[in-house]
Amino acid sequence: MRITDLLPKDEKEKATILVAVVVTTLAAAFFYQGILLHNRTIEGVIHEQQESIAITISNVDHYYFTPCQNRLHSLLLLNPGIGEALYNRDRQGLYRLTLPFYQALLRENLSLYVMHYHLPDGHSFLRMHTPEKFGDDLRQIRPAIQHVHREQKATNCYETGIYGVFYRVIQPVFHQGSYAGAVELGIRVDTVLESLQKQLGSPLATYFLTDHWQGVIADEENIVLGQHLLLTHGDHLFRQLPGNLDLSLREQRFSLDGNSYLLHTFPFFSDFKGELLGGFVVIQEITGALAAKRAFVVRSLLFAAILLVLTLTALHLSFGKLIGKLVSSHSAWERTFDAIGDIVTIMDGNLRIVRANKAAYRVLGVEPGSLIGQHCYRVFADLPAACEGCPGVDTVEQCRVNSAEIHHLKLGKTFLTTTSPVADERGEFTQIVHIAKDITEKLALERQLRQAQKMEAIGNLAGGIAHDFNNILTAIGGYVQLILLEVGRDERIAQNAVQVRAAIKRATDLVNQILTFSRQTEHAKKSIQVAPIIKEALKLLRSSIPVSIELRQSLDSAASIIGDPSQIHQIVMNLVTNAYHSMLEGGGVLGVTLREIVIEAGERRPELAMLPPGRYLRLEVSDTGCGMDRETVAKIFEPYFTTKEIGKGTGLGLAVVHGIVNSHHGIIKVYSEPGQGTIFHVYLPIADCEPDPLPAQEISEPVRGGSEHVLFVDDEENISELAREILTFYGYRVTVCYNGAEAVKSLQAEPDRYDLVVTDLTMPVMNGLQLAAEVKALRPQTPVILCSGHSEITSKAEAVAQGIDLYLQKPLEMTDLARAVRELLDIKTDGAPGSGAKKGGRSHRPSH
Fold first, then answer.
1. Which reactions does this protein catalyse (predicted)?
2. I need a surface site. Which of 10, 481, 585, 590 has the fewest CB within 10 A?
3. Is 231 a member of any domain?
4. Confidence of residue 297 (pLDDT cuts 50, 70, 90)
């Protein structure tokens, strides 16, 4: 609605408005003249007091410091022996000659703090205030003294130091025309402030440029204001100053506790070079003057208001009510518009923004009002014209609602934009309402969910394959051991069997990598130092790295983490191997660094924002190799993805590293560009405890047999038969069952028949844990060994907690099985090792 639409139309209303305008104009003129008069009065009072303060401060040197200059000059003029003593380095004589003068000066000037003789080489020769301290080199902290040494002329200046601000009176000392050194008097400026404040009658403080201040800025009585340090000297009024004051301004106003003040700044202190160090700050209260001005303003406004009320009562009440409703409606619309959390703009038919809510300015990070008049395609897409598929263009052309996703390059955000047409009372198009909802986080969560689901599916598949493969490896490895036991010393067969066992070991390592990637295997963690593990890994790899590749290492931290040493070793081996493989053709530099970092709350680096605040170790492995493009970087942690030739990589290395880092509650980040090399960063949380001691190396003893009766349960027939042959070889009586139900029947028939039960975990109908529970229910003293290739049902710790006596991980070394059977039987019978044969059984127990 236009203002002209609200104007009255009859003459009476026009006359009423004219009278109101005249009254208001006269009141405004009177008010303006009164304000001018009060302002001139206030300025006069302020100026008069400011001049008085300036005169008093300008005489500080004359009243407080000039007498010291004269006394020191007279001392050297009337006592030539002082120059001779200093020239001859006679400290005792110099002290004796100076002491009467120093004591008299102390009585006259309570502000005197230092009397000090200096040698030309910059060293202290005699402190009258502390004669026992001398010989220290002051060249770095006493520049004024060094200036006098160079120029051999007297100087008087201000200087800041660790003990505060001093006025230095420095005189060169000569003996028979030769320069002997310098003598200085140091007067603490803060000791004269009390007297100066009494003269001024106003609160007084000093300030200094922070670049020249060498004191303790963290002092609670000192305040940092921009580039200046304010020394409050204990004055509570200065300690409450607002933090936005600028001491480079000569005069500024502030309010405190309902009172008004003027802050006067007087630059005064200069060093020996004439450079400004700081000055005085004086507070002048102007509350009374401003109160008189405010009283006048209140009276004037009250008078004007009465006149206006008397005049405007003639206006129609309906007109006032209408205006009130319009204002209220408009205000409510504004509040509603700005309360919307998404970006909302109103645009004309040319897609030019004419209105924007607060969220638009906040999300886009621009100043309020800066969007008005800009085209939406420049704001959201930084394009010179409307982008293809622009919903706004479609809305203008089709006069209907449209939506589209738009990515903002500068902000790195994606918005779901919806445009709706606005029509006038005739139904004709006038404007567009444009709503942009930030869906960046939603899209990222969707991508993370898809990736997590994919990794979970692959992990489950990997776990199942690992279980079956471990059973196969157990059978192969067991029969190889059986061959070795039966062929005796046939060297050719033994060598071939050793090669087979080596192949089994490599296959076992591959299975463990798969399980590590899928995070379905457990590793005991303890407090370990990372740096020694890295050094060991680099030592192993050094011989395989070509001489064309320079290895640089910097391991600056001795911090510990909670982790598995073998897995940390695996991280280093995989990352370093990948690094030098990328430089095989052209050589380069391979860097390995380890250092500590601290992540604060509210970390702004996006790549670290997901980590809790605390101390972390950052392992960096870098190379100057071929690098990777963005598409490759996005896939490198996916299992079985590799850029190497067939036969030269499994694609599991980085997937395994990713799984290990996650299991250690850390993160891994990669930065790479084609032709620029690659950098991996691994962040691991630092432990607050000392590293655990290294375990003592175990000595494997020969396997001993026995004659007890063992029940072996496994649904894999080849493993069951293999176990029967191995345990029979060592003298045991063995009964084999191929499922848990069959084993339970045998146990129920004769509970005391078996001395020990060995069972697989994963079996149809009844798993190993259920079978173990039946065994313990029938005969609690019967020991149970649980074997597993892999399962999500339980872990070693959980199995032991559920009553399992011993847990063995597949693939099994059958000799390890035989050793475990013997040790567990010995423990359960409470006898000496080897004395646990069941009564009536065979006593034959071969060893191997």
1. ATP + protein L-histidine = ADP + protein N-phospho-L-histidine
2. 10
3. yes
4. confident
Close Cβ partners of 225 (under 8 Å, ≥ 6 residues apart): 207, 241, 243, 245, 246, 247
Q: What sections of 214-357 are H helices per DSSP?
A: 236-239, 287-312, 317-339
Q: How confident is the model at residue 640 (pLDDT cuts 50, 70, 90)?
A: low
How many Å apart are CA 478 and CA 816, to the nearest integer?
10
Q: For residues 711 and 755, give the distance between their C-alpha atoms in angstroms, rounded to a whole number.
A: 8
Nearest to 675 by CA among 635, 629, 716, 607: 629
CATH number at residue 115: 3.30.450.20
Least confident of 92-96, 206-210, 744-748: 206-210
pTM: 0.36
Sign of CA dihedral 626, 631, 635, 640: negative
- In this structure, what CATH number is given to the domain that contains residue 797? 3.40.50.2300
Rounded to whole angstroms, how far apart are CA atoms 213 and 676?
A: 45
Q: What is the pLDDT of residues 383-430, one digit of tens each?
A: 788 777 688 777 877 788 888 787 776 677 788 888 888 887 787 788
CA dihedral of 152, 157, 162, 165, whole degrees rounded to 10: 160
Taking alpha carbons only, the member of 542, 701, 556, 697 closest to residue 620 is: 556
**Residue where one domain finishes, among candidates 266, 286, 306:** 286
Domain range spanning residue 152? 61-188
Within its chain, how far is the Cα of 607 from the centroid? Answer: 10
429 and 575 within one domain: no
What's residue 773's pLDDT? Answer: 92
Chain Cα centroid distance, residue 478? 53
28 part of a folded domain: no
pLDDT at 480 over 90: no
Q: What is the CA radius of gyration of the chain?
A: 45
Q: Tell me which residue of 210, 223, 230, 188 sits closest to 64, measured CA to CA.
A: 188
Tally of domains within the chain: 5
